[in-house]
Amino acid sequence: MGLYKRDKVWWMAISHKGQQIRRSCETTSKNLAEDIFCKVKTQITERGDFLTQERQPLRI
Asked: For the chain, what is the domain count?
């Protein structure tokens, strides 16, 4: 679980209840990618339904 870089874009890898997901943070900024990653982890913890939702643009 964490952040990694593909070419110039940051991606996140998350595992929740045995399900793995990898999504682009859609940014080249590491600081912004870390903020997005933290927000996604919080959504998973609070709601638990992030992984089952339709893919939508992340809002900060």
From this structure: 1
